[in-house]
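FORM 7B: Structural annotation worksheet

SECTION A. Query
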Amino acid sequence: MRVRDEALEAARKRIAAGHNVDDVMKQMVHVLTQRILHQPTERLREAAADSDEQFLQVAAELFLGRASADSKDDEDSQNNNAARARR
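SECTION B. Predicted structure
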């Protein structure tokens, strides 16, 4: 919670100093977003550079809600096999 608390304190100080509240809020959201996403973004870049397909697959599933073509094909194959077994 330290990042959040630091951003909130900085925003409060800027507002108290007379800065526009909307501008302060926009900056706070930007700072928080950058701090939260920095490490995961760096790790994704490293994984791409290292061709870490497993890591990239998990990231795609987490962030995009989709599996790779191979995973989808495996799932389709399992579903087809189960359907045939029920017949």
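SECTION C. Observations
Residues 1-51 form one domain. The first helix runs from residue 2 to 16.

SECTION D. Sign-off
Analyst initials: ____
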